[in-house]
Specification:
Helix content: over 70%
Radius of gyration: 43 Å
Structural class: mainly alpha
Strand content: under 5%
Distance between the termini: 134 Å
Strand order of the largest sheet: 1-2
Shape: rod-shaped
Oligomer: single chain
Largest sheet: 2 strands, antiparallel
Length: about 400
Amino acid sequence: MEPERRCSQCGQVIPWSQVECPRCAERGSFLESLPRETILLLYIPVLAVLFVVTGYAAKIYHSKQTALAKEWYLRGEADLEAGKARKAIEDLSEALVYSRSNRLYRLRLAQAMLAANQVEEARPYLLRLWEQTPGNGTVNLELARLAVRRGAFPEAVRYFHNAIYGEWDEAPPRRRREARLELAEFLLKAGDKTAAQSDLIAVAADLPPDPELQTRVGTLFLRAEDYSGALEIFRQALHLDPRHHTALRGAGEASFRMANYRDARRYLEQAVRLNPQDTPAVQRLEMTNLILSLDPLERGLSSPERTRRVVRAYQQAVERLRGCAQKRGEALEGQQPMSDLQTAYAQAMQMGPRVRETVLRRDSDLLMRTLELVFEIEELTARDCGPPADVDLALLLIARKRGGAE
């Protein structure tokens, strides 16, 4: 008796008269009998189910990735806010593992690197962001700051200008103004006062009514030696807040630098009343009062007071001349050829017997020549012996005011 043959698919006995399993052959013939379109239609629901399952799984995966990225980003933000720059770098780097194309995360990572003084590490991130968004104000500002640290002056100015005229996501006027003020600060530190003045004038043209901001801008004008611009801005601040101490002191300083000593005294007196411990304001007020008490050409002086001041100025100038010569080891009564100090001393000695109040009161021409000699001596000794102090400094400032050198 021959052994049975069983189907490897279904396990049924295969008759010896047939080559294939009848049952399996019947199934195959059923499917093969169906049209191709029907078979494809039968597969559609299966594919749809698989598509839905796959999409749902992908969505869950991406949601998890996004959540992890945000979690690490928020940690980085908190660490950066707390001044933990190196920890923030670790957190933000982890955030980028889960969200590699996120520009905000890249920007914050670069800012964290700058905060940690990792300048060269931050640069590639910022340059890559700039290539993607060359008009982004924040990116350009960070590149400007990076260039400042690297000492790249032209590059820093270029990026600052890109930031000023760039695109900002929030509060564009304020952010552009802050960028321009930061540029002005940079230019002042670099010694380019003329360029700084241009940017400050642009800022001043559109300042909001904010005494603190106006005072900040006025102070920058002072540093740029644009004293009239500074005074105008300080006055705007004082119009809004008449008791703003810093604005009063700034207005006093600007007026002093412009040789408007009466205005300077008025502003500085108010500043000192508000804060008697403000040593610079107190010292500036003292010098202002000294100048006003010594100036022989001050408006409204009586003839006796004018001549008294000229005599005092002459005596002070001669003492300054002698002190300067002694400092330089130079004899004032030298022989030919005479130095500038010796020449001035000879003129002073020749004029000396007539420099008396009774004489000067009758001879206005002599009074003016005496005063001119005083001014000449103060300028000469300042050149040869360095900056003067106290009364001599006051006389030098008076000389420059009257001579138009201020």
